[in-house]
Amino acid sequence: MCLACLVTDYEEGVDARLGFRGSPAEIDRLSKFAIDSTNVCSYTLRMIDAERLASTPPAEIAAEMIRVRREIDERELYWSRLAVAFDASLYWHEEGSNTAIDWMRINCHMTQPAAANRVAVGQQLSRMPESSQAVQTGEIGFAHMTVMARTAIAVGNAFEETALLDKARNLSPGKFHYRCLQYQHSVQPQVYAAEQAEQVEKNKLRLNTAEDGSLLISGVLDPVNGAAVRGALEPLARYSGKDDYRDREQRLADALVEIVTHGGRRNVQLQVTSSIETLLGLVGAQGADMDFSLPISSKTVERWACDCNVTRILMQDSVVIDVGRSRRVISPPMKRALHARDGHCVWPGCERPASWSAGHHLVHWIHGGPTELENLALLCFRHHRMVHEGHWQIAKTDDGQIMTIPPMITFGLPRGPD
Length: 418
Ligand SMILES: [Zn+2]
Ligand SMILES: [Zn+2]
What we know:
By secondary structure, the chain is an alpha+beta fold.
């Protein structure tokens, strides 16, 4: 749409419903502008729209959104009909595409599932006359239609449009999808069970190591086991305590590590080889060695060594040594006392339970800190990491309060989305 079209719209009063109240003088000015510079319209158009929308009551914007969405949904039905006719034409084959959906993906700038959904709807339209009508009256949306079409394909002759349409009218597309799966189960329990079993067979997990040593993870889990994994990750991926600026993906990644290491306490199966110099963080010391990994920084080794749950070999002049166990190991009775005293991670605002937290030496044993209750505090995986690798400081005041001090240079990031 160019500015000239916009001006025409104004003159016809089409945009009056969005609250534009252009005076004749203003319209005249815009008309002149349009005639003089027809090619500068796109940027100006956005500016005018933003200005106009800013003064439009939200209820009017909301009504307009619903109206336009209904228009789009109707056009989607029309597009679905075209897609089926196109699929049957084999024109896509002459154009050199492997499938009609492939042609749509490239030429109509769509994802493969989006194109496939429309072909499915187009193919099933004759079995969904009432639902098509319901889209036109705005009772359901096109998203309901894709679910309905997929269900019709899945259950074949058992498909009952009227019964499902009643449900669609009262449910969001997401809930309707869930209800349709239940419906599929009710009419074809054996097929449903077989499909679910087949999905499990397709489970995959790919682990690749990037050049910088990072682990790249991708994969697919069937719905049941996928839900189990999400159920375990989601509670751990919530914001924890104050100063948590991680976005959702970062929180999920941290949650995965937290589960695998049980709060950062289970690196036990990995053998870490580190020199005393590395552990002390001395300049010139090499990184520590660990299976499946590039050299590990001294700060990470320091954290692992902190609660003494890591199987490690400290080397000095290539001789395996260890620092006296009694000086560093938190004995079971002391651990119980620590759990009882702190209850959970002591970081302000964090309530990760004691069983998911490690005993942190306020003064590290490598620097002479004693393994005594007074020098210990429970920290969850993330906060333990912030103290060692993140350069935060944690201290206990005389009255037993925990104080946290951020690193010297910090940049306040906006809180990530849920
Ligand atoms: Zn520690
Ligand atoms: Zn914590």
